[in-house]
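Good morning N.,

You mentioned wanting to compare the apo and holo forms, so I went ahead and generated the holo version with zinc ion. This is what I fed in:
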Amino acid sequence: MPGINLTRDEARDRSIMVDVDSYEIELDLTTGEKTFGSVTTVRFRCPDDAERTWLDFIAPAVTEVVLNGTSLDPVTVYDGSRITLEGLQAENEVRVVAEAAYMHTGEGLHRFVDPVDGEVYLYTQFEVPDARRVFACFEQPDLKATFTFAVTAPRHWQVVSNSPTPEPSPVEGDESAARWAFEPTPRLSTYVTAIVAGPYHVVRGEYEAKEGTIPLGLFCRVSLAEHLDADELFDVTRRGFGFFEDVFGLAYPFAKYDQLFVPDFNAGAMENAACVTHHEDYVFRSRVTDAAYERRAETILHEMAHMWFGDLVTMRWWDDLWLNESFATWASVLAEEEATRWIEAWTTFAVSEKLWALRQDQLPSTHPISADIRDLDDVQVNFDGITYAKGASVLKQLVAWVGREEFLAGVRAYFAEHAWGNTTLQDLFAQLEKTSGRDLSAWAGQWLETAGVNTLRPEVETIDDAYTSVTVLQEAGEEHPTLRDHRIAMGLYDDSPDGFVRRRRVELDVTGERTEVPDLVGEAVPDLLLVNDDDLTFAKIRLDDRSSETVVRGIGRLSSSLARALCWTATTDMLRDAELPARDYVELVLGGIQRETDISVVQTVLAAGRTAVDLFADPLDRMMLSARWASGLRRLAGVMEAGSDSQLAISRAWAAVAASPEHVEQLWSLLDTTDGGDILPGLQVDTDLRWSLLHRLVIIGAAGDAHLAAELDRDDTATGRRQAAYALAARPTEQAKADAWAQTVESDELPNALLRATVDGFHQPEHLELVRPYVGRYLDAIPRLWAERTTDTAKTIIVRLFPRLLADAEIAETIRSWLNEAELPPAPHRLIVEGLADMERALRAQARDRTAGQAARRH
Ligand SMILES: [Zn+2]
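and this is what came out, ligand included:
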């Protein structure tokens, strides 16, 4: 629970006092449905003067604590989260016997029952501090140790951990059970240890690595087995290993590599050493676009990069979480672009990660990349767009700054020097300074220790269609006034029969407020002058007038996918900054998306278009704009190639907003087909698309409970139940909202996946009057949610039930004054501040759109 904290100071003191040698952990998974047996034996050393320390452990019943042969009274030494150990010796052994609890929140040891066959599936998720929900431990990343797991479980199960799975041995007196005794792991941090157990379906493979053969395993629930595309998954995996072993200059450090697709997972994936868990939505049971395959490959490569950066070499404390995540993100996109079929992975990065980073970096809660993580609360709300996306963007800029080969040489030296140890940022920088010969302290000061994003804007003067001067202007916000040194490229694009083609590229350093670009003086004025071409730096980009016109007129005709992505990101950012009215953005998308060939970009831009309508449009004109958006998408869906990814993506976007009687009729007709019939010929109407169509019909009140029940009958699976939970909360009735509220805010019975689906269904643009009465109740519930639920659950509810769609001045004021009065802990306070800032941004964009509407009406 969020009250169960650990501070950086405590962790530092403890790591001075304690050297951990080993854990032996005995888990018995046959003792019941609520709890399991947990016996931990920890061996650790202390210097002479250490007298007391503690073990972290959260369990309903600790029955035995034995320190150096002396039994301690659990009632005295255990307070619910810590076991106090006093009278330490130079060498210590402590044994803790307990019953620990299964979780249904995706933290600790999660227990899931498959509705299809009643089978039980378990997996652990320990980052940040939840190994302590399974065994007693020193829960901090710099107290590494070896782990020897032994697991008793039903005999027909698979049991997987960080070490290779051994042959199980019989359990005396229980023929239905078996015991798996794993070999000790190398020295690991607690948060990357793992146990996955259940009757998982498994496919095995191999990778011929530098130093011998690495056994590979893929696991998923039996009821998903038919959808597991093992060949494709192994292919990405092998390519990743080949790439990373090469560029990291170090063989894969573990004995095998298992990837497990697990139910109810809260994140995309987790880098448990040699035992990576993935969200099982990555096993595609319905048709998805290539954007989903690309994202999955990125995730696979991200977790794999962590095997070296994170698991082999680990941050000392969570201050360097950003480096851990940014490095894995950067490395995964690099590997994807250079070693897989997604050769334009940086294009996806330029729209998805960059927009995420831009949003986060302009919130009041933004922070330097190098964050001050005082305690566990701080880190748990810091898995954000700064830590992942801005960090990775800035790392990309660092690579441009020091040079790619120099950067990789530094990384290789870093791995070699710190293998199996813990580090800070300085350890990496020391190597990079050696290999590049550059002093990075000024760079770090500008990029890592200050918050906020710069805007780069071209200022041009011309005579007779040639430049007489080109200047890059750099701006910074008032709150975060730092101007930075940027290594950038500028691209000049001209119209041609092949579209807008790059004529010239210049690379330069931008410093201070004004940077002249003498190289471009005398150059003919292009149709598009693109600042930050090739996306080397992290900045907001603006276009000059002529370039803006080019983008509006023909963004789809830009020949380079990365250049198009940069223009999409720039215009989306202008929408968010109230510089581009929502109605104009909608037209830009409807006009440009048809020629966009990068499906990840298509989907990102479609999502932004939807946000423009729902959030950034003048509320008085929203109905009109929404109808325009729906009819435009319907027209586009009709002209896209039958069976193509674009057809699927645009059809889904259309179905999500369809409202006219004619469109609703078409949704019903599609449900009677498997191939789109003559409505959208070639559209594969499969399980998940059926649910999407039905969701829309439910939201607008066209489909009722009987339809939902019938669909759940067709698809009574874990995913089907999630889809149904969303639909139930998305019904347009007071009762439906009251039920959803009671199940999520008032009760903690729902497992995490159903909880998430329910809160996601609650707010709909069409239901604003139904949900408006809940704003006050939402605010009232926050302190209690934070105090009583686990961190992940509290965060899920608070963020996803924030009334973002209800953006208006009155509600913003209600939230603002509530924030001033409420005495919240910093973490939930931050979540509300962020929601409010998004709302205020929406109000500014709405005002901009209103002005544009008034101007249009005057003409
Ligand atoms: Zn990661």
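The mean pLDDT is 96.

Happy to go through it together on a call whenever suits you.

Best,
F.
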